[in-house]
Amino acid sequence: MRVFDITFDCKSDVPTGKDPDSHSQKLKTNHELLWTKALSSDVLFAPTEPSDPKTRRNNYLMFEQASDKKFTFGSDAITNSYTKWSRPKALVEAKAGLSEKQKLRYFNPPYTIGSAMIWPVRKIHRPTMNTARGMRGKIADRMDLTLECIRRHYAEEPGSPLEDVTTNYADFFALFGTFEQFVKFFHFQDLVTREGKIDFFLKHGEDFKRSGVPVTTDEYVEVREASLKFIKRRGNRMADWVEENHPEIKVRR
Questions:
Q1: For residues 215-243, b (16+ Cβ closer than 10 Å) or e, as one string?
Q2: What confidence score (pLDDT) does residue 37 get?
Q3: Average pLDDT, stretch 20-48?
Q4: In angstroms, rounded to a whole number, what is the distance separating the alpha carbons of residues 241 and 183?
Q5: How far, in Å, CA of 126 to CA of 111, rounded?
Q6: CA 162, CA 145: separation in Å to the nearest integer?
Q7: Which of 129, 153, 206, 237 maximizes the CB count within 10 A of its CB?
Q8: What are phi and psi of 6, to 5 degrees?
Q9: What is the pLDDT of residues 150-205, one digit of tens each?
Q10: Contacts 24+ apart (CB under 8 A), 40-46
Q11: 36 CB contacts (<8 Å, ≥6 apart)?
């Protein structure tokens, strides 16, 4: 019997030093499982691994919307412990202020499916969402801030540091119709309030006037606790969905 395990560490599925987003077969098959479902338009969204070995080498997952419309996707870890970040100086000092117990909790956590996402990739549209999220300081690899940019894209509101990226990949976001449907499809409900606003990891900074990086020890703890809570909740939402839609699969939590 196939098993869907929300506690499985995708880093354990690859040789030492290899990137799970590129090399973990378990992660890839879980992406295929979770994201193969009907869109609000009743079109079946089904990103799959290419069968042709040559195509597979250069394309992680692919989805053909129409004969002349294809999407290629890459996998991305959507939360970050900032363990290896050596800049800015304030972040380094913030991490230095952690206790040994906190370091064990926050540094290098397992990479579970609750922290994984797929984003579209096109050579003509660089940077991709994956790259821009990590490279732009006002986002700092935080999914809460990324989701605010996506919300603004759907609402056609200005001020998003990822506006060029969401515009370049507008056809991807259009697949889901609305922001609410995008959130539901990818199990991001725990980052959105009942009023439809983002539940930010830090209670300020949503206006993008400051860096998304935590710059004090208290901020670092706040971001990491919120992130770990989100991963656990999202993983359980995924498990609920698999139990409801794939009773033939055993779920482990």
A1: bebebbbebbebbbebbbebbbbbbebbe
A2: 97
A3: 95
A4: 14
A5: 26
A6: 10
A7: 129
A8: -75, -5
A9: 999 999 999 999 999 999 999 999 999 999 999 999 999 999 999 999 999 998 76
A10: 40/176, 40/177, 40/178, 40/181, 41/175, 41/177, 43/175, 45/175, 45/185
A11: 44, 45, 46, 47, 48
Residue 67 pLDDT > 80, yes or no? no
Higher-pLDDT residue of 103 and 65 is: 103
| Amino acid identity for residue 251 in this structure | V
Per-residue pLDDT, 192 = 97
Q: Which two tokens stand for residue 249?
A: 């699969």
Calpha distance 228→20 (Å, rounded)? 19
Q: Do 10 and 111 contact (CB within 8 A), yes or no?
A: yes
27, 75 Cβ separation under 8 angstroms: yes
pLDDT attached to residue 52: 77
- DSSP assignment of the chain equals --EEETT--GGGGS-TT--HHHH-HHHHHHHHHHH-EE-TTS-EE--B--SSHHHHHH-SEEEEEETTEEEEEEEEE-----TT---SHHHHHHHHTS-HHHHHHHSS----GGGEEEEE-BTTB-S-HHHHHHH-TTTTT-HHHHHHHHHHHHHT-S--TTHHHHHHTHHHHHTT-SHHHHHHHTT-GGGB-TTS-B--SSSS-TTSSS-SS--SHHHHHHHHHHHHHHHHHHHHHHHHHHHHH-TTSEEE-
Distance CA 53, CA 46 (A): 19
Beta bridge partners of 48: 62
Asked whether 159 and 152 are in contact (CB, 8 A), the reply is yes
Residue 80 tokens, joined: 């970050």
Distance CA 155, CA 179 (A): 8
